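for ur thesis appendix - Alcohol dehydrogenase. copy paste whatever u need, i formatted it the way the template wanted (i think)
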Amino acid sequence: MTSMRVAQVGSPGQKFEIVRRELQEPGPGHVRITVEAAGICHSDAGFVQAAFPGVRFPLVTGHEVAGRIDALGEGVSDWKVGDRVEVGWFGGNCGHCVPCREGDFIDCTRLRVPGWAYQGGFADSMVAPVSALARIPDELSAAEAAPLGCAGVTTFNALRHSAARPGDRVAVLGLGGLGHLGVQYAQQLGFETIAIARGTDKEPLARELGAHHYVDSTAGKVADALKRLGGAKVVLATAANSDAMTATIDGLTHRGQLIVLGAVPQPLKISPIQLIMGSRSIVGHPSGTAQDVQDTLAFSALKGIRPMIETVPLDEVNDAYERMLSGAARFRMVLTTGN
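the 3d part is after this line
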């Protein structure tokens, strides 16, 4: 094969089109990956709309990528052709900025996100640096693994580094693409898990995913409901709604923590007094390094945690993308290439 299909966007806000490009050769320290599955994340819309600085067109996005190595660049060791690998939001780091020098690679000031820094995974093939690679366990299919490179690692990593300890109450705000994974991880990490979502119709799914309690956010004040349960040590805010996040703050225990994952521009309406009384805190959490992705994949395989996905062929990328944007997906759209 000397050429490959890519789903590219020609200019900001335009639809995807399937075109053929010359197959790339991996440079030093890089590998070429035959893509088997690529998740569609809401962050991809930010790239398509050029909401991120420096996005270049024509654009091939995709940062939830699962496949197999088919070629090695010069100097690559510890990886071989045929290895099953994942590339997530963390697509490499510069190694020179202050966060990198401190070992804080996910906060690299020049973080190399696939689809932003280089061609992403909405394609038959992609090239990535070895620093971005995570190994996929045999127990996970490519389609199951793909969303864990962003949605999975973001929720799992946030919880395992949170203020909560096994037995503590953890509330997951939102039951969508991130939240349905957050509930599973919270339960399997040993937390008394509370799911918060709109309406009563989502309660059966929340219970099925492992939630011990369910709070209907339309039935009254969420903070009061949390306090009746004893308060939450952590609220994992996956819902992209600032008002919904704000409504949970008074339901935190002393030294409780609101972890913000839902990326929205609207400010949180929280007073200093709400934080001071009870020594509460608010933290933002990004994704995770390639090792964090690998840990997420391994934990998911060990505990039987799987994303709820809908698979669509690469050629139908526009339909899948629109389904993601509309919120109709249950819960992650995954493109498959047939490789």
